[in-house]
Amino acid sequence: MSTPIRFFYRGAVQEVSNVAPMQTVLQHLREDLHCTGTKEGCAEGDCGACTVVIGSLENGKLEMKAVNACIQFTPTLDGKALFTVEDLAQGSQLHPVQQALVECHGSQCGFCTPGFAMSLWGMYLKTATCPSRRDIDDTLSGNLCRCTGYRPIVDAARRMSELPRVDFDREALAATLRGLQREAGTVYSAQGQTFHAPRSVDELVAARAAHPQAVLLAGSTDVGLWVTKQMRELTDIIYLGHVEELKNVREQGGLLEIGAGVSLNDAYAAICARYPELSEMWQRFASLPIRNAGTLGGNVANGSPIGDSMPWLIALNAAIVLRGASGERAMPLEDFYLGYQQKDLQPGEFVQALRIPLPRAGLAFRTYKLAKRFDQDISAVCAAFAVALDGDIVRGARIAFGGMAATPKRAALAEAALKGRAWDEAAVKEAMAALARDYAPLSDMRASSAYRMQAAQNLLRRFWLETRRENPLPAEALNVFAQASA
Question: Is the pTM here over 0.85, yes or no?
Answer without folding.
Answer: yes
